[in-house]
Amino acid sequence: MNQEQIMALDNSLVWHPYSSIGSGLPVFPVASAQGVRLQLSDGRELIDGMSSWWCAIHGYNHPEMNLAIQEQLKQMSHVMFGGLTHQPAVELAAKLVEMTPQPLQTVFFADSGSVSVEVAMKMALQYWHSKGQPRKQRFLTIRNGYHGDTFGAMSVCDPVNGMHSIFSGAVAQQIFVDSPSCSFGKACSESDIAPMARELAEHHQQIAAVILEPIVQGAGGMRFYSADYLQQLRELCDSHGVLLILDEIATGFGRTGRMFACEHADISPDIMCVGKALTGGYMTLAATLTTREISETIADGEPGLFMHGPTFMANPLACSAGLASLRLLTDSPWHTRVSKIEISLYHGLEPCRELETVTDVRVLGAIGVVEMMEPVDMRTIQPALVEAGVWVRPFGRLIYLMPPYIMNDKDLNTLTAAVRDVINTIG
Ligand SMILES: *Cc1c(COP(=O)(O)O)cnc(C)c1O
Fold first, then answer.
1. Three-state secondary structure readout of 315-331
2. pTM greater than 0.70
3. What are the sequence ranges of the domains in the chain?
């Protein structure tokens, strides 16, 4: 197919994320990807500033990743996980338990981040059911969160800007408090945590768990908040008998400068979701980890089985990709790389603060955000970024970068310069 044929078919019959058929919004056909570059089918090369939405931390077409999947392919690409098991699954589970905070000891594999959130929420409900507290059915969360697009996950996304407000009549009604205003690196005052403390004090008998993204709220606004808030929240959950679910799907595997964002606060959740970078962007896979206490309580309760089991659970190809990706990560100087990216993003993006159209610039780990006064116009900004030789996908008022960890200084400079230029000319 030539490029025009691909575009025509795409435009007439294929849905894209948060788009519509025939929307006419620009899409760009990609022919291949290598290292930190995407190659468009017209031959243009773009430096990837998105890691394909947090995932491709090692870059594209990585020889070790490719080899791991090829080797697994020779054994089997898939078998059902009901009543069967295999080495890729158990090895990956052991690696995850080793890498995550110590209390997390068991692993449920899911096929996407959203599903791992559904699983986390169901685990919390089934835990309380097993403990003879079936009234604990609600979830408490903070505004500006994003946890995925399925119904349970939607119910804890920001109710207004969480992209799901038109479904509000059909999703479970959860409890929301304002997201913390104490920013990262700052202490958190009594008044910052007060709304959370009040809801927990008043409603803990109905609340199964607090769920939130630790430190960085991703798709709900790219906000970075205080580690102190998380610490205080952990204590509040413990004192009120409420579980803490941390959604590390975006933040996990080094992105914020720590292996998991909860390490900034030196806390551990009762249930943790991981996904996105888990397979280095090679295959769709996520996981929900929990403690022995929760796993055993569910096993000892009624019906004694956890009521969830996706068809593609623990897909062997995905698990072997996950294992290869995590080995690559832990064997690499990822911490130094992320620190270098942090410095580079800071120097590259901070000048944007001077622009009248910009309200904030913030950088944490390998995440850089330029927040604009007004929502960007995707019809003009997206082609302009591509013209500048970079792949950056803004949303709303946010132009943000989360490059693969392997990106060198020269490419990082090109990337941030392109963002500056585009904001300067059309922002
Ligand atoms: C992307 C994301 C999800 C949803 O993951 P999918 O794989 O898209 O279903 C959930 N939580 C957070 C924090 C995310 O960034």
1. CHHHHHHHHHHHHHHHH
2. yes
3. 3-61+333-426, 66-331
